[in-house]
Specification:
Strands 5-6-11-8-10-9 form a six-stranded mixed β-barrel. Strands 1-12-4 form a three-stranded antiparallel β-sheet. The two termini are 26 Å apart. With 418 residues, the chain is an alpha+beta fold. The longest helix is centred in the C-terminal third of the chain and has 33 residues. It is elongated, with a radius of gyration of 29 Å. It has two domains: 185 residues, no CATH class; 199 residues, no CATH class. The chain is 47% helix and 19% strand.
Length: 418
């Protein structure tokens, strides 16, 4: 089969090159979508628990006596303490703020840097798993400690061996508890350049407005199968809290979200339209598969036309219709696989070149970090299996009909074809 494919490449270099290029383009577009989906929604370091995490981002506070009187915002550490931490079946939960700017420097005021900060708690390091170069995450008692990324440590101190050193964070002296490897901006929830603990007072529930506080909450379940039970139990916890709040109530609006809903939950008062999102991806994949396959089908028909006499000879020597169809499909699959390999390499290149456009969102726009792509995302085994599966589908869609029509013709018609 390989020898026959090489002969076909030599006999029809132009058509073969177009066929390989068409397959490569289709695979490039398909795999770019797959890699982008993988980077946004699949587990990868440091967001290794995405597949079994639920998220609460938005909250509505309303007056039950006047539904028009309402306010939308983010959640708070108090909501985490009162409604989330008592839940059964969860492994960990953390509250974390969005990215904002901060100034850090050495204690004498030198080496001033503007960095991306994130306020969070000690459980952040249980939910997200960055690679610690030295030290560890701060504990609940270490309210004057921070964790910094490697690049910030090097710019401030010239080394990453800085655990125990002090720095000025917004003119406040803080101790460095740990140094982590720089995190890609594509990890929108875990990314920061410095992580700072929020004050213990933010955990105190003292009225309805204490449950709204500019934070997001991530909940790690023991298994994704526990999601329905966690959602039901959280709903009951919210009802219990509402019972003691008077006429003002809190509403988490059908949350917690899974990772896909969470990433696409941009506005506090409007949730994501997931059916439309899935439909858009499905239509895009269908179009990318269908259009190149129709073009390649025409090329396959042209190649079959040139090989009619050869097929007639094979039939004359006992080759059955199914043998001929299988041979043609196998030869075409080899060309498709060549295009698939080229397309897979081009997909990595295209995603890398367009990484800022693909992964910039409301949570990381204007940040200072790098849009690096994790190797466990780019080179996961299932991506290669998907690439091969798409090659097979394109092969069947583009070559099956021409092969069947060519093999269906009689020996005389095939031998006399000009």
């Amino acid at each position: 089969m390989i020898r026959q494919t090489i002969m076909n490449l030599r006999q029809n270099p132009f058509l073969s090159a177009i066929s390989i290029a068409g397959t490569a383009f289709a695979i490039t577009m398909i795999m770019a979508i797959v890699i982008t989906w993988q980077t946004k929604y699949a587990d990868f370091t440091p967001e290794v628990n995405r597949s079994r995490s639920l998220y609460v981002m938005a909250m509505r506070i309303y007056n039950q006596d006047n539904q028009d009187e309402q306010s939308y915002g983010f959640t708070s550490p108090a909501f985490l303490k009162e409604c989330v931490l008592p839940l059964k079946g969860i492994e960990a939960a953390t509250a974390f703020g969005g990215i904002s700017g901060a100034l850090v420097s050495l204690t004498d005021g030198s080496n001033r840097l503007k960095v991306d900060k994130r306020i969070t708690d000690a459980s952040f390091w249980k939910v997200f798993k960055p690679h610690f170069l030295t030290g560890r995450g701060f504990s609940e008692e270490e309210v004057q400690s921070v964790v910094v990324c490697a690049s910030v440590a090097r710019k401030l101190f010239g080394t990453t061996e800085v655990v125990g050193q002090q720095l000025l964070y917004n003119r406040e002296t803080m101790r460095i508890a740990g140094v982590v490897e720089d995190i890609s901006v594509a990890a929108k929830d875990a990314y920061a350049q410095i992580w700072v603990p929020y004050t213990p007072g933010m955990l105190q529930a003292n009225g309805v407005w204490s449950y709204s506080g500019g934070m997001q909450i991530a909940i790690v379940a023991k298994s994704a199968d526990d999601f329905p039970a966690i959602r039901e139990e959280l709903s009951k916890r919210v009802e219990a809290v509402n019972a003691g709040l008077g006429n003002r109530k809190i509403d988490i609006m059908e949350q917690p979200d899974n990772i896909v809903a969470h990433v696409n939950h941009v506005w506090c008062n409007i949730g994501p339209d997931l059916p439309m999102l899935y439909l858009q991806y499905a239509v895009a994949l269908l179009i990318i598969l269908l259009v190149p396959s129709l073009n390649l089908c025409g090329l396959s028909s042209s190649r079959m036309q040139q090989r009619m006499a050869e097929l007639g000879v094979r039939k004359a020597f006992g080759g059955t219709r199914w043998v001929l169809v299988r041979q043609i499909l196998n030869e075409n699959l080899m060309l498709t696989l060549l295009g698939g390999v080229a397309g897979l390499l081009l997909s990595y290149l295209s995603v890398y070149l367009m990484r800022e456009w693909l992964f910039t969102g409301s949570g990381n726009v204007g940040t200072s970090g790098e849009f690096s792509l994790s190797m466990d995302v780019l080179f996961s085994p299932w991506i290669f299996l998907l690439a091969f599966a798409f090659c097979v589908v394109i092969n069947l869609m583009s070559a099956a009909l021409p092969a069947w029509l060519a093999a269906k013709r009689s020996i005389v018609e095939s031998l006399n074809d000009k």
